[in-house]
Amino acid sequence: MTALPLGADPLASLARPPVAAILTLEQVDADVFRGLSHTRARRTYGGQTLGQALVAAGLTVERAHRPHSLHGHFVHPGRSDLPVDYVVDRVRDGGSFTTRHVRAIQRERTVLLATVSFQRDEDGLTHQDMAPTPCPPPEALPRFEDSVAADASDHEWRRLLLSNVGVEFRFPEEYPRLAGRRGTKLPPRQRAWIRTPDRLGDESLVHAAGFTYCSDLFLLSAALPPHGRHIDTPGLKLASLDHTVWLHRTFRADEWHLYEQHGYWMGGGRGISRGHLYDRDGTLVASTAQEGLLRFR
Fold this sequence. Notes:
The chain has helices at residues 19-22, 46-58, 144-147, 156-164, 176-182, 204-215, and strands spanning 26-29, 32-35, 65-74, 84-93, 97-106, 109-120, 168-170, 189-195, 236-247, 257-267, 270-278, 284-296. By secondary structure, it is an alpha+beta fold. A twelve-stranded antiparallel β-sheet has the order 1-2-4-5-6-3-9-12-11-10-8-7, covered by helices on one side.
């Protein structure tokens, strides 16, 4: 084994999972598609199951209809060492809207139930009643690996994050998890520039699934800063319960977008966060919401 130079970060060159491969499904039967994790994580990343479910649904829909919403319920945790089969039910084929129900199954156990809706492109009234808070562009910000390199007390959480989730991200402010590790209390808001490290081709369905894959990252943890906690706080059990993605227009998931998140409620062992995705011009291109378990034993 080659020794690292003095002061070198052992995680700086860690490869992220291949998102393009993760979103490439194998058809194993009529309206049944199989996806793989391509990671060594013990549990499946939730965004992977959501993204693969959207691809499976889209493979049964004519291309004139594009996905505009996905509503998913996580039923059981998935295992990354096993494939997941996505069984698609063709609920409705309409002139304007098409609906699919997807059941993600692993060894006869349901891990996700999702409803995906597609719409034919059409013109209409437009407005958006929100705008992102100004911040530096991603090129002016350090890579995530560099921004947290000073936190050398524990490499393991960084290794797990970088090796198990295929998302590139850069924070305009301090990564809130670091404040939580210090016990510092902050407002329930966080934001990051995000994109997939892989180029995803030109198919709009794959880019919609690419953001859906990214959308689960950090979202629920936005409810923790007011409590001075983070997702690895001893005794904390954190799990996504349901997740919604609304896609307002087509965009490329492999290009930088600003993902603002707000953890606006917590109680009864649960928390709810919402997210807004903006392009560089401040145009709102997607919105998300998630409820999850945030329980202390």
